[in-house]
Design goal:
- It is globular, with a radius of gyration of 42 Å.
- With 1521 residues, the chain is an alpha+beta fold.
- The chain has 48 helices and 22 strands.
- The protein starts with 62 loop residues before the first helix and ends with a helix.
């Protein structure tokens, strides 16, 4: 959001002053681009290190992929347009084709040249349709109407049964029922009574007149604050008049021509009633008319009650339409029973064909009316399949038109691919029908694909000219324009990308009989608030506040000072993103990746803010951004002072890497301003202001003051950002609700690498679904080595198949904390944040809560009804464990926590299904199947190994193979139970190597088995289906094809990961340590508290040791003089005899008190004597009551009285020892003096924030005291849990293995015959001359076959889910891809349109720090022979002015554009300084620079007027005073 006016650059005389500070120009070293900003670089030290152009995987060169996506989007534009247009035209034409067959005794000339049997090829014939044809086509129209209603019923039932629903008020239901009934009756009258009476061309045109009620309601729904209100109302009136003319036009024409049938006069009521179907889309609660306002209230309530209503209304509409059909056809056929004679109608029946006798004087071709039939009738048989084919094509084309139209709206190509083809449907249909009817009139044998006795009903003669001249078809143009105006909203959509169906269309489905009008009038009008640039400016009452808080908190942008108005402001809907990262012992490379990602976000946010502020462009993707890093265990003992703590080496590394990360991102050497230092109740805080003016706030946690570990860091930032900075703000609750809904926490790990585009895709998902609690992206592991290659394939199939399937059929169960977006409102819900603070008190809690905190948080969200989604297009890269031990320890945490959280969800499944709309019983069954597969996975792998050995070594029996495979497994289980973790991992590593070689044997054995059993055996089919699904899935992810070769490593490590790792995780369930990054943890120094505790324990151990033995017994009285006796006897201290024992008196305290009183009396006497003598008190003496002034953050000077007894001492002693500085952790902690933190300012938190953290620590984050007894109890409970899990895990797998193995041993007795791959043996018996044919079937054990089918079903579900998710991902990519050369060429666009479309990219070019000093780096792109190395070094050395703030760099370039020079023809003349050199090199058009110059002049003029207004206001106030 733009800052207040006090922070804005003065644009008159001070235009040349470009501030590089947050609020004011720099006066000291700070934001200089490098050391040249402070002191001139020495000539011998002028050599530079240029950062690489591509510094991260997320910032990689994807030009080919971007171009491919753009071409795909262009192809999608035209493909969608073609399908929507073709679907609409074919649907419209087929409906009119069917209505043309409803007229009783319809006659049509037929072609005798076709193979019709008894007809002569030289004669002309006419066919008369029998009643059976009328009936069958009436039923086909009914089925066409019912199919979308069936879809509506299915969708409504699914929503009501599997998601939440709400019962509507009876009045609402009755109104909806009434309007839908009227619509259905009108549609039935139009289809069965009106359209059959007029020719097909008139019928097509009439469908443009179905918007009467929408036109009237839309006009009444307009509000007074709309721009051009009178003009819009005038056009509304004209459109309604045109619609009314369509009701009466054709009846009057038909009456004037003598065709006065009563059915044609049903046209006005039919059109009028049909138009009621779209009433809801054109009512608004903001209307000035009470009746429209009332219906607008019903419309709002239908958001929650629609599916309940339409679950019944869809059935009712089918009944009503059926009733209208029966009545209408009864009037035509004069026999109601004929309608129900379906056996005759849907079977072959005769068509009467009569010969035409020509009796004309000339050779002109007669009209059909002048041809006279004779009495020769010949029947031909009808085509019984034609109505079915027409029905199926009509249903398919209508569905395609609706689905692809919705797809166009979702991916934001609505104007070209939806609105354009929908409006073209009727003109194209008319053109095609005129052509087809003309061809058929000229030659009945044309269009042979259609049965000769069926065709559209058309008039004779020159169809086009007669119709235009005689039937007033020219008025149809006004009907088309009136419908276009009433549906103008489809041309200017405002919905977000990938909007849900409910946001795009009003009713769930469509009316296939009037498909184009249905989708156009049903497309929801976007009446949401439109954010304007002025909404982003702060109100005037805030401009006088302390501007130092402007960049300290995002919450100030919410107009929090206004507490009197509860009206929700447009700015409350601005997206607010807090990136929250947890760090511990990250390496320098890992820190660099995370910092570069944050700096890219800072650059992107700054560009969007500046574009709105200076270019006056509304950016729908604008967001506010702030980063918070929570550093666990950030302090250690100082080397200089063992009594004080300083930040550890990891914090210092983060500070050092800040400038390097900025240099890599901005491609020039810069220095970030040193961080501000804040003392805090939890340790400390460092705050950086980045070049884009966003902040990085690093919270340094002292584990002696606040609870450490990742989950408690998450609790800390959730309560701070959502509790203190939102809920604790003095703003109305309605605004808090909206702000919370649009506030997101971007959870990050300290090694994550991502791009702003990846975050934008996650925000798109959040905007699409308000019930979405969390969204995660595609996580790519990075690193080197075999373990990383294994993880590349594992992550790939986990995301490709498992997460995609969870997203499609239910919810993603885990949104990983390394890169996920959480909605603030969801986290603030009941039983989420508060329950997340639960301290682990049971053994299971340590596994579920602390080992998998991210999964548990998602479980809490799911159990509260929120949805969790996965976006495959949002890429992020994280460092994966490269070593075997680190990987095993990481998975030792993940495996038990995953199973514990899934078990928790399954145990609470009934309640979760009831409260969560996205989790259904089938989804719970799917997760249960996965759980069974996970538990029995080790047994399955073991049986695979046993079978592989038997197949590979034919001489080895099953029992021997079983024994050989059992020995290493039992040995490893015993080792995991008794040996330490490092030893277990070493054994697992050795077994992994052996099993990797065994997997080669397994592959060979499988090939042997396939050849013996046949390629259609279950094992063969399952193997190739699995491998094929992986390959096809990889091919559908072209950017990730590199993961497929890693499948070889994955295959070889299957026994290790699905057998050994499962055993290791289960047998180490009692180990709840973190397991990773422990090597770095050993290198860090201990804190002061840890050292004191170790010293105390050492002293106690030393004392205890001295008390042991005989010598300790002899000397015990010297150490412990607790008692004394009235009579004592001792001998050389060897022993002592005491009589009349009593406790020893302790007079030390009394003596000290007496001495203190005496000293106080002496002091008072000395002071009295000195006062009488006029002598001032000695400076070497200090008062007993000493006042110390402390500047605390509570504000003001705090007087602290310290009682101190000072003995008299000499001046020399005082000077030698010196007073020791008093330390206060909230005022002057020792760590802030560390030179490694640079010379940043020292600041203090507000009193309210200090108190908040004190309360938060006291309530939720107080360090847990170490209780040895409790710790031992917890360890015992964890071991008990481990033993129970080991027993259950072992028994289930043992039972499974033994059962399958025994069934394989007795396969000849208990088996199932496999029907595929049957082998046939043919034997010839010579003695009997017989041929014996024997079919040999493959015998399968039942349970084994069941498990093969079990895993095959899971694979099939995941493969289908992947395909559906791929389509959604491609849609998301296409929706977020901008095309500047698709709709109009850039050269053909106006300057205003070009800037509107490319504002953010223009600002990014103008705010680049590289080249802002007028010196460009040649880089590697310049050939070696042309590189001016020495000149560049000298320029950079002599250049002293450097800017490191993006908006200042933009302003310097922006205000350097000369408005006067735009009149010249050369782009080089458009600038007044060399800082635009890199812009000149870019292909920025001269017209664009001219438009920017105009924007500059308008901004300057506005600032001058604003300044003049402020001066006038100030002068007026002075005069009043």
């Amino acid at each position: 959001m733009p800052p207040p006016s006090q922070l804005q650059l003065a644009l008159e005389e001070s235009d040349g002053e470009f501030s590089d500070d947050e609020t004011s120009p720099l006066n000291e070293n700070g934001y200089g681009a490098n050391r040249r900003s402070v002191q001139e670089t020495k000539g011998w030290d002028a050599f530079r290190t240029i950062p690489p152009s591509i510094t991260s995987l997320s910032d990689g060169n994807e030009d080919f992929f971007d171009v491919a996506v753009k071409f795909l989007k262009v192809f999608t534009y035209f493909l969608t347009l073609g399908i929507v247009l073709a679907g609409g035209v074919m649907t419209k034409g087929l409906v009119l084709f069917m209505t043309s067959q409803l007229k009783k005794n319809k006659q049509l000339p037929i072609c005798s040249k076709t193979d019709l049997g008894t007809l002569s090829r030289e004669k002309d014939y006419i066919a008369t349709l029998p009643i059976e044809e009328n009936v069958v086509w009436a039923w086909m129209l009914f089925f066409c109407f019912v199919v979308p209603e069936f879809f509506t019923l299915f969708r409504s039932s699914r929503m009501c049964f599997f998601k939440s629903w709400k019962t509507p008020p009876l009045s609402d239901f009755m109104w909806v029922w009434t309007f839908e009934t009227l619509h259905t009756v009108g549609t039935g009258l139009l289809i069965y009574l009106v359209l059959p009476e007029i020719d097909v061309i008139k019928g097509v045109m009439l469908t443009n007149c179905l918007a009467f009620i929408p036109g009237v309601l839309g006009s009444f729904s307009r509000t007074n604050n709309e721009p051009y209100l009178k003009l819009k109302i005038g056009l509304d009136v004209v459109a309604v008049v045109c619609q009314v003319s369509g009701m009466v036009m054709w009846p009057l024409v038909e009456a004037s021509q003598g065709n006065d049938t009563w059915r044609i006069w049903l046209l006005p009521p039919a059109i009028f009633l049909t138009s009621f179907g779209w009433w809801e889309n054109y009512v608004d609660r903001k209307s000035n008319f009470s009746i429209v306002k009332y219906f607008g209230g019903i419309k709002e309530r239908l958001w929650k009650t629609r599916y309940f209503c339409y679950m019944f209304i869809s059935v009712w509409k089918a009944i009503v339409f059926f009733t209208v059909m029966v009545i209408a056809m009864g009037t035509r056929l004069e026999d109601f029973e004929a309608v129900f004679q379906l056996d005759k109608a849907f079977s072959q029946h005769p068509i009467n064909v009569t010969e035409v006798r020509k009796n004309l004087p000339s050779q002109t071709i007669p009209d059909f009316s002048s041809a006279v039939p004779n009495d020769n009738t010949n029947p031909i048989m009808s085509s019984e399949n034609t109505p079915i084919y027409v029905f199926l094509i009509q249903v398919l084309t209508a569905w395609a038109c609706y689905v692809f139209g919705k797809f166009a709206c979702k991916i934001c190509i609505q104007g070209f691919s939806f609105a354009f083809p929908v409006n073209l449907t009727i003109p194209v249909t008319i053109a095609l029908l005129v052509t087809a009817c003309g061809l058929r009139f000229d030659d009945p044998c044309s269009l042979k694909e259609i049965p000769t006795y069926l065709f559209w009903d058309y008039s004779n003669g020159d169809i086009l000219s007669n119709f235009v001249k005689n039937d007033y078809a020219w008025i149809w143009v006004f009907w088309l324009l009136s419908q276009t105006w009433i549906t103008i909203h489809i041309w200017i959509p405002k919905s977000e990308r990938l909007a849900c169906t409910e946001k795009l269309f009003v009713t769930p489905m469509y009316n296939s009989l009037v498909i184009d009008q249905s989708v156009a009038l049903n497309r929801r009008r976007d009446n949401d608030w439109e954010l304007k640039t002025e909404d982003l400016m702060l109100s005037g009452d805030q401009q006088g506040k302390d501007l130092s808080q402007y960049y300290d908190t995002i919450s100030i942008h919410t107009d929090s000072s206004n507490t009197t108005s509860s009206k929700i402001k447009s700015s409350d809907q601005i997206t607010r993103i807090y990136s929250v990262a947890t760090m511990w012992h990250e390496t320098a490379e890992e820190m660099m990746e995370m910092l570069k990602s944050i700096l890219r976000m800072d650059e992107d946010q700054c560009a969007r803010r500046v574009a709105q502020k200076y270019l006056r462009v509304v950016d729908p993707d604008y967001y506010e951004f702030e980063t918070h890093i929570f550093f666990d265990d950030a302090f250690e003992v100082s080397d200089d002072n063992e009594d004080e703590n300083v930040v550890n080496s990891f914090v210092k590394l983060l500070v050092d890497k800040m400038d390097e990360a900025a240099t890599h991102v901005h491609q020039t050497n810069i220095r970030i301003r040193p961080p501000k230092k804040y003392p805090t109740p939890y340790g400390g805080r460092l705050v950086w202001t980045l070049p884009g003016k966003t902040k990085i706030v690093v919270h340094l946690k002292d584990k002696s003051k606040i609870r450490h570990k990742k989950r408690w860091s998450q609790v800390m930032y959730m309560y701070y950002l959502l509790g203190f900075k939102l809920m604790d703000q003095p703003i109305p609750v309605d605004r808090k609700e909206v702000i919370a809904e649009n506030t997101y926490l971007l959870a990050l790990d300290g090694d994550i690498d991502f791009s702003p585009h990846a975050v934008a895709l996650l925000v798109d998902l959040m905007k699409k679904n308000k019930n979405l609690g969390a969204a995660c992206g595609r996580i790519h592991p990075v690193g080197a080595g075999l373990m990383v290659w294994y993880q590349m394939f594992e992550y790939a199939i986990g995301h490709w198949l498992q997460k995609a399937t969870e997203h499609m059929i239910g919810c993603v169960l885990c949104s990983p904390g390394c890169f996920s977006l959480f909605r603030g409102k969801a986290l603030m819900d009941d039983n989420v944040m508060a329950k997340y603070t639960t301290i682990s008190s049971q053994a299971r809690h340590y596994v579920q809560y602390d080992q998998g905190e991210d999964r548990w948080l998602c479980t809490l969200l799911l159990q509260r009804g929120y949805r969790v989604e996965y976006s495959a297009a949002s890429d992020a890269y994280t460092h994966a464990p490269e070593g075997f031990a680190e990987f095993y320890n990481q998975r030792r945490r993940w495996v038990p926590s995953t199973m514990a959280n899934i078990m928790d969800l399954l145990e609470d499944s009934r309640k979760t299904v009831d409260i969560n709309d996205n989790i259904s019983v089938p989804y719970i069954i799917y997760q249960s199947m996965l759980m069974v597969g996970t538990i029995l996975g080790p047994g399955t792998i073991f049986l695979m190994l046993v079978g592989a050995f038997t197949a590979a070594f034919p001489t080895m029996s099953n029992n021997t193979s079983f024994l050989y495979n059992m020995i290493p497994i039992v040995f490893f289980m015993v080792a995991c139970f008794f040996l330490k973790s490092p030893t277990q991992i070493s054994i697992a590593y050795a077994l992994t190597v052996v099993y990797a070689l065994v997997m080669v044997i397994v592959l060979v054995s499988m090939m042997i088995t396939f050849s013996e059993e046949g390629w259609l055996s279950p094992s063969s089919l399952f193997f190739f289906a699995t491998a094929g699904s992986f390959i096809v899935t990889g091919l559908l992810h072209p950017k990730e094809l590199i993961c497929l070769p890693c499948g070889i490593i994955y295959y070889m490590l299957v026994p290790s990961m699905y057998l050994l790792l499962q055993i290791y995780s289960c047998f180490n369930l009692n180990n709840v340590s973190w397991g990773t990054r422990e090597v770095a943890a050993k290198q860090k120094k201990k804190t002061r508290e840890e050292l004191e505790e170790e010293k105390k324990k050492a002293e106690e151990a030393k004392k205890a040791k001295k008390k042991e033995g005989f010598l300790g017994f002899l000397t015990r009285d010297r150490k412990e003089k607790e008692d004394e006796g009235s009579i004592e006897f001792s001998l050389a201290g060897l022993f002592k005899i005491m009589c009349c024992v009593h406790p020893t008196r302790n007079n030390q305290t009394e003596q000290l008190a007496s001495i203190a009183n005496s000293l106080e009396m002496l002091k008072m006497r000395f002071e009295t004597i000195e006062q009488h003598m006029g002598i001032s008190p000695s400076q070497r003496r200090r008062s007993t009551l000493r006042q110390r002034v402390s500047l605390r953050p509570e504000g003001g000077l705090i007087q602290e009285t310290m009682e101190n007894i000072d003995l008299d001492y000499s001046d020399t002693e005082s000077e030698m020892s010196g007073p020791k500085e008093e330390r206060d952790d909230l005022v002057n902690p020792y760590w802030m003096e560390d030179k490694a933190l640079k010379r940043g300012e020292v600041d203090y938190m507000p009193n309210a924030e200090v108190q908040f953290f004190k309360d938060l620590i006291e309530m939720y984050l107080k360090p847990i005291d170490k209780d040895e007894q409790r710790q031992k109890k917890t360890e015992a409970e964890l071991k008990e849990l481990r033993n129970m899990a080991v027993f259950a895990f072992s028994m289930m797998n043992a039972v499974f293995v033994v059962t399958i193995f025994l069934l394989q041993m007795h396969q000849d007795i208990i088996y199932i015959l496999w029907p595929l791959g049957v082998k046939t043996n043919i034997t010839f018996v010579e003695s009997d001359f017989e041929v014996l044919i024997e079919n040999k079937y493959l015998k399968l054990e039942p349970i084994g076959l069941v498990f093969v089918i079990f895993f095959a079903v899971i694979m099939a579900i995941q493969f289908v889910g992947m395909l559906l998710h791929r389509f959604g991902t491609i849609s998301h990519i296409l929706a977020s891809t901008e095309l500047t050369w698709c709709t109009r060429k850039a050269e053909d666009m106006t300057e205003e349109a070009y800037i509107q479309r490319n504002a953010v990219n223009i600002v990014k070019d103008l705010q680049k720090l590289k080249g802002i000093d007028g010196v460009d780096d040649d880089g590697d792109e310049v050939q070696l022979g042309r590189r001016k190395t020495i000149h560049n070094l000298e320029k950079h050395r002599q250049n002293k002015q450097a800017i490191s703030t993006l908006d200042v760099a933009f302003k310097k370039r922006f205000f350097s554009i000369s408005a006067e020079a735009t009149e010249n023809g050369r782009k080089e003349d458009l600038v007044k300084s060399p800082i635009l050199g890199n812009i000149r090199k870019a292909s920025m058009r001269r017209d664009t620079l001219r438009a920017l110059a105009e924007r500059r002049e308008s901004v300057v003029q506005e600032r001058r007027m604003s300044r003049a207004a402020r001066k006038t206001s100030f002068a007026t106030e002075i005069e009043e005073i």
